[in-house]
Design goal:
Its cofactor is Mg(2+). The chain is an alpha/beta fold. The protein has helices spanning 12-23, 48-63, 97-107, 174-180, 182-192, 194-197; strands at 4-7, 28-31, 67-76, 117-127, 134-144, 160-162, 167-168. It has a single domain (4-197), classed as Maf protein. A hairpin with a 4-residue loop joins strand 6 and strand 7.
Length: 198
Amino acid sequence: MEQEVIIATLNEGKVKEFKQLFGSKNWSVKSLRDFPEVEEVVEDGQTFAENAKKKAEALSNRLGKMVIADDSGLIVDALDGRPGIYSARYAGEEKDDKANIDKVLNELADLPSEDRTARFFCAMAVARPNEETLIYEGTCEGRITMEVIGENGFGYDPIFFIPELQKTMAELSPVQKNERSHRAKAIQLVFTHEHEWS
């Protein structure tokens, strides 16, 4: 029987990635877009894990089903870890990818490549009614470019350079991205530990 997984997000880019990642397992993926009556949860936690857990549990309790939520973002060493948990709204409340990218590039304007180390981080929560929520984490190491490069992906992908591939995340195909992104690594842990929550 085909299993259903509900992802606690409205972000179209994330929904697309989750559908590709879960497609190999023949799971059907639904998102908050499939439940317009459910309000989006305010992410006011102090960590990625807190935010992911809060979103997953709120939706799981509301729907009475298993829900997976991720909270992910960009951590830049030279910016003391910013934008971090504020990645989606770094330049303002309206979640503007271009404005967020411009802000990061402006803040790093005077730094040489070797000082622009960064990582994408993802905390993924699996929540089920009346069960303990499980958290899985994934990271992807890289550097921030001097300019936007690449057309694929979303968010900070066009300025996140992966040294071993000599490409930004936005230059990768969806298949390549799903082999090494922070979200893909967290999802792989979810799959690996399926016996813990299925």
